[in-house]
Each structure stands twice: as structure tokens, then as C-alpha cells.
Amino acid sequence: MPGLPDHPEIVAIHADEKSKFVAGESWHSDLTADAEPPLGSILYLPIVPDNGGDTTFASMYAAYETLSPKMKPISRA
Questions:
Q1: Distance between CA atoms of residues 60 and 2, nearest Å
Q2: Four-point Cα dihedral 14, 44, 30, 1, nearest 10
């Protein structure tokens, strides 16, 4: 996903009442599956809806640790 022209390290995601698609509308991982994942992620919402738009967070470390041994990938290190 391309970043801002003057700041390629920043990916701005914008939606409004005219948007046909809203990024992150369902489960997503803020680019962490990229070959070079981001250092961090910041959520800044200057305008929020009266309802909905809930943000939840999940620990991928905890999710991995609860997988059965068969579901965990084999280490190639």
C-alpha cells in the first residue's frame, strides 16, 4: 500500500459518507502481514460516528501460543 507522497512511511486511510469501500471494515492486521511490517500503528479519528466503529485489539502472541502443535509452523531456523 503506498504511503503519502511527502512521507512514504505514513499510510493514510480515509473514508467518508461517499466512500464505496471502507478499509478495515472487517478483521484486519494493519499491514503486519507485509514482508516488511510497520514499526507501529496509530489510530487517529478526528470525527467519529455516534455509534458503531468499535476498535478491538488482539494479541497475536497469545493466539499463536494457544495453537495446537500441529497448527504451529515448523521452525526453519
A1: 25
A2: 40
Cα separation values, 2 from 7, 47, 49, Å: 10, 24, 27
> How far, CA to CA in Å, does 64 sit from each of 18, 26, 31?
38, 21, 18
- The per-residue pLDDT for range 22-77, each reduced to its tens digit, is 777 777 777 777 788 788 777 777 877 788 767 777 888 899 999 998 898 876 55
pTM score of the predicted model: 0.47
Q: Which residues, 6+ apart, have CB-to-CB distance to 3 below 8 Å?
A: 9, 10, 11, 12
Terminal Cα-to-Cα distance of the chain (whole angstroms): 29
